[in-house]
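Propose amino acids for all 197 sites.
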């Protein structure tokens, strides 16, 4: 067994300590681990093991992170599908309002920026939140074979996706990718990543 393989055990053992000159060593022998197959004094520290597993998962996720090109393609494709969804949603909303309260349709005839923004916000929240909560993917992510995961590499819960979706509406959010490693504000604030499948 190599030193690196022994260190994998040592990093999660309750009987380990750190020495400035030797690195991780056995606290019982004050020597680097030298067992061949397994250590008879190994006693797993569940907290250290959990931390080590988290670091390992995080490294794997970083290696799978989707490129900026794929992220930009996702943005453009989703923009097209979001416009289509907005048109369909607006048509359905118009039909429902025409049946329930025809006089309320006049609000859409005026050139009201607040109503336009509110409609865009609602349709965007519905589009991103429902798709990413249920599948981890928007339509663009299905096409580019990418998906959203949390920092542990698992499917994010609804609250996480809600924060992610809300973050899309921060002014200049689209520019948050400039000078960054494939991560925008909506990724950082929600603690999510988009990975290649």
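Proposal:
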């Amino acid at each position: 067994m190599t030193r690196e393989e022994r260190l994998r055990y040592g990093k999660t053992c309750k009987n380990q300590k750190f020495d400035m000159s030797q690195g991780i060593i056995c606290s019982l022998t004050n020597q680097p681990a030298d067992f061949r197959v397994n250590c008879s004094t190994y006693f797993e520290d569940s907290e250290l093991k959990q931390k080590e597993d988290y670091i390992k998962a995080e490294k794997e996720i970083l290696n799978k992170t989707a490129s900026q090109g794929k992220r930009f393609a996702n943005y453009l494709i989703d923009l097209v599908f979001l416009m289509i969804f907005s048109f369909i949603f607006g048509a359905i909303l118009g039909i429902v309002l025409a049946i329930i309260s025809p006089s309320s349709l006049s609000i859409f005839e005026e050139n009201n920026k607040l109503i336009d923004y509110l409609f865009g916000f609602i349709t965007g929240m519905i589009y991103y939140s429902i798709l990413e909560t249920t599948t981890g993917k928007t339509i663009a992510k299905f096409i580019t074979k990418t998906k959203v995961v949390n920092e542990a590499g698992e499917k994010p819960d609804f609250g996480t996706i809600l924060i992610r979706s809300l973050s899309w509406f921060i002014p200049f959010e689209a520019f948050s990718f400039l000078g960054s490693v494939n991560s925008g504000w909506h990724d950082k604030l929600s603690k999510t990543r988009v990975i290649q499948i």
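Residues 68-100 form the longest helix (33 residues). Residues 3-63 form one domain.
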